[in-house]
Amino acid sequence: LVSREAREENTVVRVGNAAIGGDGLAVCAGPCAVESREQLLEAARMVSGAGAVMLRGGAFKPRTSPYSFQGLEEEGLRLLAEAARETGLATVTEVVDEYSLNLAVQYVDVLQIGARNMQNFRLLQMVGRSGKPVLLKRGLSATVEEWLMAAEYIMSEGNGQIILCERGIRTFEQSTRNTLDLSAVPLVKSLSHLPVIVDPSHATGDRKLVGPMARAAVAAGADGLLIEVHPDPGKALCDGPQSLTPAQFAALMEELRAVAAAV
Ligand code: PEP
Ligand code: MN
Questions:
Q1: Which tens digit of pLDDT belongs to each residue from 120-140?
Q2: From atom 9 of ligand 1, which residue's Cα is the shortest distance away?
Q3: Model confidence at 17, in pLDDT bands (50, 70, 90)?
Q4: Which domain holds residue 40?
Q5: Where does the DAHP synthetase I/KDSA domain start and stop, copy by copy (predicted)?
Q6: Which of 115, 201, 205, 244 is positioned for an S-S bond with 248, CB 3.0–4.6 A?
Q7: What pLDDT digit, counting tens, does each position of 67-116 carry?
Q8: Could you tell which of 95, 112, 138 is best to mutate to test the pocket of ligand 1, judged by most ligand atoms within 8 Å of the CB?
Q9: Do the domain assignments include residue 7?
C-alpha cells in the first residue's frame, strides 16, 4: 500500500494549516520535551513566528536511562493543546504505548512513533486505527525496507496519513550521535508516495551540525524538517546540546527558504 506502484501521486498529509508532502517545505519545531508552561509557550510563539507549521514536544520520553527526565505525561499534552490554541500551530507528540496513545489522541494532531518503537508492531497497528496522522521515525538500525514495512503496518489498518522521518542510523562512527542517511530521502521518495521529512537534530546530536544538514536535506528533496528548538538550550532537561536557540532557528528558516526556492 505504501509503494509507488500502489499509488502514483504523492500523498499530502494535511493537519490544520499544515500540508506535508505538498509544494512548500513543512517545518516542525519545538523542544525535545515539554518541560513547563513558560518553556513550551515561549518555544511555540517563537517557532510559529519564524514560519514553522507544526509544534513538536515530547510528553512521554523514551530515555536511555530510567533516571533521566521521563516527561510530564498528560500535563505535557495539555500544554501542547494550549500552545496550539494560542499559536494556531498543529502539534505532534510521541506515543510509546496504549496508555500514552489513548491520552495523546485527545490533545494533539499528529502521533509520533519514535525510532525505538519503529518495529513495535502492535503499537503501529494501534496508531493505524487511531484516525490521526502518524509521523513514523526510522528505527536506530532499520533498513529502508524495514522502515517501509513499518509504514505498511499502519496503512494496512486503514490509515494512509503517514509522514516518514529520517533521523539518522547507527553506524561505526562515534563522533556524531547517529549518521544521517540523506540518500534515503530521494530513495524512499522513489519507492513510496508518502512524504519524507528529515530530523537533523537527532541525526547529529550537535547544534552546529543541524543547520548544514537541514539545508542539505532540503536540497535532497525532503518535504520537511523536524528540528529541536529550546528557549534556553543550556537548561534543557533533554537533548540540550542539539537544540537550537530561537535566534538560530529563525536564521536557519531564512536560509532554508533560499535553498527551497533553488530546488
Ligand atoms: C524525539 O523526537 O524526541 C526522539 C526521541 O527521537 P528518536 O525517536 O528519533 O530518537
Ligand atoms: Mn530529542
A1: 999 999 999 999 999 999 999
A2: 115
A3: confident
A4: 13-262
A5: 17-257
A6: 244
A7: 999 999 999 999 999 999 999 999 999 999 999 999 999 999 999 999 99
A8: 112
A9: no
Q: Which of 60, 137, 228 to mutate to test the pocket of ligand 1 (most atoms within 8 A of CB)?
A: 137
Q: Which atom of ligand 1 is closest in space to residue 62's alpha carbon?
A: 5
Could you say which ligand is closest to the alpha carbon of residue 167? 1
Looking at residue 170, which CATH number applies to its domain? 3.20.20.70
Residue keyed to cell 522502515: 147
Query: Residues with beta carbon inside 6 Å of ligand 1?
Result: 32, 58, 62, 114-116, 137, 167, 202
**Quick check: is 1 in a domain?**
no
pLDDT digits (tens, 9 = 90+) for 149-171: 999 999 999 999 999 999 999 99
Q: How far is the CA of 227 from the centre of ligand 1 (A)?
A: 11
Q: Domain for residue 6, yes or no? A: no
